[in-house]
């Protein structure tokens, strides 16, 4: 696996508060990497270290296999949760200024802006001051400023905050388009539906420590409980099948059974049932990211309270 960012044993303290405790991550190139965790877990502290806003007290961070250095930040785009635009500056002037800071020529900025002006329908707003824009429109402008220089690494902290569903969907499509062009994305959010839809890899940070890391599929598989819903012609009896029947209920002309297989995979389960039951549908319960998040964060919070 080729990595865009590698974090090794990072520790960060603020006075007496331990924000990050020996955190290590591997962020694959060309992926959308979900950085998850409750408020205060350490996500923003880690992002600020990757973007060199702050530095780690211990540990190392690598960018494209090079020890993180000042010159790397020009190849990143960072959209923080706390938005920051110059309110008195005109939109076009602001986008030009911020892009020139990233090393683009005036000609190149104007060329690239044509796409975004059309995509986000902001032509009539280019000569207005930022303070004249709605919150959602300001969000669009800041997103454009973040991606206009076409960064190798795009870091998004709650990027859909303030957007209505239509504009949030536009931003999602642009994130996927940038990924398909080779951009790597770190995506920090509390919205698990966005994680389900967008992320390839995930890390969960809680109480300053990494508690989960892997592909979305690997993580979901690791939380599987072998629980299924099975639609049959009659209620399933567990006798000799190596299953636990949680509940059975009439569903029209069929019976819906909620069962837990104690020692069988899906194929073996079906093979065991088909001898005595007409099977019309089998569906495995795959835990959602929301369920996994609540389970892991809740478990850790309970441990903390009980200490």
* Spans where pLDDT lies below 50 across 5 or more residues: 300-307
Overall pLDDT confidence? 90
Strand order of the largest sheet: 6-7-8-3-9-10
Q: How many strand segments?
A: 14
Question: What's the helical proportion of residues?
Answer: 25-40%
Q: What is the N-to-C order of secondary-structure elements (H for helix, E for strand)?
A: EEEHEEEHHHEHEHEEHEEEHEH
How many separate structural domains?
2
Range of strand content: 25-35%
By CATH reckoning, the class of the largest domain would read Alpha Beta
SS field, number of helical segments: 9
CATH architecture label of the largest domain: 3-Layer(aba) Sandwich
What is the CATH superfamily of the largest domain? P-loop containing nucleotide triphosphate hydrolases
Structural class based on helices, strands and sheet pairing: alpha/beta
Overall geometry comes to elongated
Distance between the amino and carboxyl termini = 39 Å
Radius of gyration: 24 Å
Major beta sheet summary = 6 strands, mixed
SSE arrangement:
Layout: E1 3-14, E2 17-28, E3 32-36, H1 43-50, E4 58-63, E5 66-67, E6 76-79, H2 91-101, H3 106-119, H4 135-147, E7 153-157, H5 165-180, E8 184-188, H6 192-198, E9 201-206, E10 209-215, H7 216-222, E11 227-232, E12 243-251, E13 254-261, H8 266-273, E14 279-284, H9 289-306
Parallel strand pairs: 3-8, 3-9, 6-7, 7-8
Antiparallel strand pairs: 1-2, 1-4, 4-5, 9-10, 11-13, 11-14, 12-13
Helix pairs in contact: 2-4
């Amino acid at each position: 696996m080729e990595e865009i960012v590698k974090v090794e044993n990072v520790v960060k303290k603020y006075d007496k508060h331990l924000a990050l405790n020996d955190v290590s991550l591997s962020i694959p190139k060309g992926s959308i990497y979900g950085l998850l965790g409750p408020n205060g877990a350490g996500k923003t502290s880690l992002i600020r270290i990757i973007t060199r806003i702050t530095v780690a007290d211990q540990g190392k961070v690598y960018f494209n296999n090079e020890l993180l250095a000042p010159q790397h930040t020009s190849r990143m785009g960072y959209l923080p949760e706390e938005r920051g635009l110059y309110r008195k500056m005109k939109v076009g002037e602001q986008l030009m200024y911020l892009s020139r800071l990233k090393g683009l020529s005036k000609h190149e900025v104007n060329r690239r802006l044509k796409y975004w002006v059309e995509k986000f329908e902001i032509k009539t707003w280019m000569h207005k001051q930022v303070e004249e824009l709605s919150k959602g429109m300001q969000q669009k402008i800041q997103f454009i400023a973040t991606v206009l220089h076409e960064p190798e690494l795009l870091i998004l902290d709650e990027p859909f905050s303030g957007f209505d569903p239509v504009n949030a969907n536009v931003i999602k499509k642009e994130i996927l388009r940038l990924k398909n062009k080779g951009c790597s994305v770190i995506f920090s959010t509390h919205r698990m539906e966005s994680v389900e839809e967008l992320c390839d890899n995930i890390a969960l940070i809680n109480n300053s420590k990494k508690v989960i890391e892997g592909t979305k599929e690997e993580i979901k598989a690791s939380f599987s409980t072998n629980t299924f819903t099975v639609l049959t012609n009659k209620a399933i009896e567990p006798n000799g099948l190596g299953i636990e029947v949680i509940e059975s209920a009439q569903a029209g002309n069929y019976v819906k059974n909620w069962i837990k297989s104690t020692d069988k995979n899906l194929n073996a389960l079906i093979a065991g049932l088909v001898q005595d039951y007409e099977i019309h549908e089998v569906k495995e319960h795959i835990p959602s990211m929301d369920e996994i998040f609540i389970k892991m964060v809740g478990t850790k919070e309970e441990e903390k309270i009980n200490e």
